[in-house]
Amino acid sequence: MFPIPVSVLTGFLGSGKTTLLNRLIKEPQLADTAVIVNEFGEVSIDHALVERATDGIIELAGGCLCCTVRGELVDTLSDLVERLRDGRIAAMKRIVIETTGLADPAPVLHALMAHPMLVRTLRLDGVVTTVDAVHGARTLDVHPEAVKQVAVADRLVLTKTDLADPAGVADLRAALHSLNPNAKIREASRADDLVSLLACGLYDPETKSVDVQRWLGRAAHDDVHDDHHHHDHGDHHHHHDTSIRTFSLTHPGPIPSAAVEMFVDLLQASYGERLLRMKGIIELSEDPAHPLVLHGVQTILHPPARLPKWPEGTRGTRMILITKDVPEDYVRKLFAALTSRPAVDTPDRAAMTDNPLAIAGLKI
Ligand SMILES: Nc1nc2c(ncn2[C@@H]2O[C@H](COP(=O)(O)OP(=O)(O)OP(=O)(O)O)[C@@H](O)[C@H]2O)c(=O)[nH]1
């Protein structure tokens, strides 16, 4: 039964991790796979979006997998191993951990390679990193986490090549190759043999760049000093990058599609690529029985999808926004106005619809 191979699935915000995971777990050969997804934000959306009828999906709540819930990841894995040992759960062939898009993968890998109990029972079997072909190059320039995710990978999966300009894709491939010459690059649209994507062999930091070895070393250092100086390691940019914020918006009742459209249009027009990620499950007035799933990734709004029914009988609208330099207060007021829940000093939807940009007291 042991050691159980563990795959880490990482990649920047909205780069297609869950989409790939959904394809993977449908493969019959991967039927006995436990999936651990890292939930971000206060409301649960990711769980609803991983398409699996049975359980076997474990959610880690709150924040970034690499820092705040690293302890929780270790606890979850230890607990899983315990339950396997005494037969409380059926044997599994593999564990897949999907990190959040902003996660620095180094501490997660370090935990898997250095934790005394986990190294005996689990075997890190590779890191798969998704890279969005539309935004990838720019994201690598702006977000150091994205560079690390690429650098630690065994396999790089290019997503959204169907939406990208081919010359840009060629440049991106070259950039990826120079960041991580040993990783195989595949296109999600062509990845027919999905199972082989996961089986990478024992994870070997030696084949990675010198930077990766330094990052992993740094993660070890973090462990030793965990209690004392949590936040003073320069590599943890997202802790210090206070301009990046995650917040959620909820509304208990249905929302007209025109209001949803206006909300998303205004946000995208105003903030563009600063709207790093938007993810929502929406109860539409026009069709409340079928949840609408919205995915925004920087400047792109993907075609909305419908779920056949509400997960766990929950209705209403939940949205998660991950933003850079976007005033949360403005977004909240806009959402309140469009959902006809006027906050103090905020006009209602009718007033907004007439002249949405002229909201008293609101500046973009
Ligand atoms: N056209 C196209 N869309 C894709 C592709 N891969 C993913 N998407 C879309 O991109 C959006 C985001 O995909 P997800 O799989 O949720 O991305 P993620 O990396 O899990 O996102 P996070 O929740 O931020 O971690 C969804 O609307 C997907 O349908 C692709 O290869 N082509």
UniProtKB/TrEMBL annotation:
Known catalytic reactions: GTP + H2O = GDP + phosphate + H(+)
CobW C-terminal domain segment(s): 244-339
Chain residue ranges for the region called Disordered: 224-245
Taxonomic superkingdom: Bacteria
A Pfam family recorded for this sequence: CobW_C
GO molecular function: ATP binding; hydrolase activity
Record-linked Gene3D superfamilies: CobW-like, C-terminal domain, P-loop containing nucleotide triphosphate hydrolases
Composition skew (Basic and acidic residues), residue ranges: 224-235
Keyword list, A-Z: ATP-binding, Chaperone, Hydrolase, Nucleotide-binding
SMART domains hit by this protein: CobW_C (SM00833)
Cited CDD domains: CobW-like (cd03112)
The keyword Chaperone appears for this protein: yes
GO cellular component entries: cytoplasm
Family per similarity comment: Belongs to the SIMIBI class G3E GTPase family. ZNG1 subfamily.
Role this protein plays: Zinc chaperone that directly transfers zinc cofactor to target proteins, thereby activating them. Zinc is transferred from the CXCC motif in the GTPase domain to the zinc binding site in target proteins in a process requiring GTP hydrolysis.
Name the record gives this protein: ATP-binding protein
Source organism: Tianweitania populi
